[in-house]
Amino acid sequence: MATNSTSSSSRVHSRSKGGSFGGSSRAPPPSFKGGINKGKKNGLPVLEGPPRDEAYIASQFAESYAGVPPPKPVYLSNPKGSLSNWAHNAYNKLPMYQASEGRALWRTTVSIPAPAGTDIIGTGDHRIRKESERLAALAALYEIQGMGLLDKAATLREHAVKGEAATSISITLSDGSAVDYERARQFIDYYCRRYKFGKPVVDFQETRKCWEAIMTVGGRRIGMGTASNKKNSQTACYLDVTQYLETCDADLWKAFVAAATSK
């Protein structure tokens, strides 16, 4: 569902399937261990609300968007791929999946941070984690269809590029920290030193309408920024990677802040 987003005041964009990352979602950053709720089943929480299965998702769409036709079958045959392609074509962003394990089901929530200030959200439940991800993507596609945007990705992308803020680009992290380019650069340098990856590598690509900056760390492409000029694309890339790393490991950001404060 569409909710207010406080994660970013910039035009920070990420590559999705079909682009430089070559997959339906961004690879975990080097050193990220991941893993959620690995304890015993009887110690896991009971998920709230009704199961977000395919029937529930379709019924919620019909109730919330009465009279609106469902997404075309071409979108629904591979929901994760369709969502990644749409996010790339609309905002040059990457869907972000968060999964949590319950006693009987996995619940996955997918979000696409939209430049307009709202996140597009989808939630899916299934006893198999990968199926819960598929259902989350399906729910997001239904939401996008209900908003009348599923067939308007190219128009959204054009507006996003034209509306890009050229100055005072910054993001806000989950703890409320405001981060500009210089702070993001310091954080990523700290991350690379801590895990002995060497300096980050940023490659640039120029397209007809914009510049793309792609960051590689430890042999993995972990972030991308798009802007109307080369300098701003680099700024957007550093901010994108900073936000991504903090999302994966909030303790890493806290350690960086503590280390910077102690100097």
TrEMBL record:
Residues 191-245 form the DRBM domain. It comes from the Eukaryota. Residues 1-11 have a biased composition (Low complexity). Residues 1-49 are annotated as: Disordered. InterPro entries: dsRBD_dom (IPR014720). This is DRBM domain-containing protein. It comes from Athelia psychrophila.
